[in-house]
Amino acid sequence: MKDNYFFSIIQIDLKTKTNQISFQEQQINKNKQLQIKRTNKKKNNKMDKTAEGALGSKKLCSKCDKCMQKFLDKIRKHGYEVQYEMLSNKGYDERMILKALKKNKGDVLLAEEFLQNAPPKRERREKHHKRDSQEKQKSDDEKNMKCKNRKERSPSKRKEKLHKMVEEIPNFEDLNNQLSKLGFGDAKENFKALKKNERNPEKAASHLQKKQSLQKLQLRESFSKGELKKIFVDCNNCFFIEHSFIKQSVKGDFKQIEEKIATLMKLFQASYENQIQIVLVFDNSSMMKDQSLAQQFADDSFKLISSKPQFQNADDALVHFASLEIPEVQSSILFVTSDQMLQARLVEKNVKNIMSSKRFFSFIKDNFVGSKAYSAVVEQ
């Protein structure tokens, strides 16, 4: 029994050893196969490189290998491998080499002569860009001409538009003729003006006149010390020039906004050095109802004016003040407002200098008051 037991143990040991040996042999065989594959791969890569050596080793496109492969296929297709290698070794552009060889049917000497006379890459690009832009411009011009001809040849569309206008305003043709005699020849603009102004030709003509005045108007961007003698400010138009003003407007705290505007104008007046008169015009001033506060600002050269009840609003008051000024002094007077309709009315009164509210306060902040003093007033 003991002999059988030892014999079975020996058999088990032999089996495990043979299994271990077979496993080791398998691993060795796998490693050998991997090494063979790697060596074969390297050989294939070397063979590919040597095959492509005649076509140059430079890549035409850094983005992908497909571009290079396509280009190499073209070279092979035409049978220019040897010629390509000769020319690429001389440093010529790859694409231009192919072009030159195709143009000269594979003749290396003629291809090289072509490459030597070819313009640089930058010039070629500029030439192509110029040609493309010219072609685009030509096509755009042709399209515009076609559209123009189509419009000229289609009076029916104009008749349709006119018919629609007449449907909305039955006596439009007569009213349009009246406005045309006054120098307003655009039927579409005349229709809009009549529609806005209760079909009244006089009001429409006034509206169109203001619109023309606005188109000709050039707002001031700056001024120098001593240039101005008087400044009128449309204060209600200044309530939204600063973020803090907007917050206070939402709360309905207009008195504090008015006080800040007056303080900023006082600082400007002091820093302007030359004598200048300031006129602040409000619709219905809350600050002026507080006499003690108003007296802190008001003097002979600094006036606070509430348009009501004498005028309907600040716009009417400013137009009235503009009409009182003689033409000779208009060049030394500045009106500050961003209201376009008010600007047009002021131009009718021969006002020469108008500045938008936002631009005016930004300008005095940078050039007279100083950003620190300005911010201290605005943010308090």
UniProtKB/TrEMBL annotation:
SUPFAM superfamilies: UBA-like (SSF46934). Residues 132-145, 152-161 have a biased composition (Basic and acidic residues). Residues 113-161 are annotated as: Disordered. Residues 122-131 have a biased composition (Basic residues). It comes from the Eukaryota. InterPro entries: UBA-like_sf. This is UBA/TS-N domain protein.
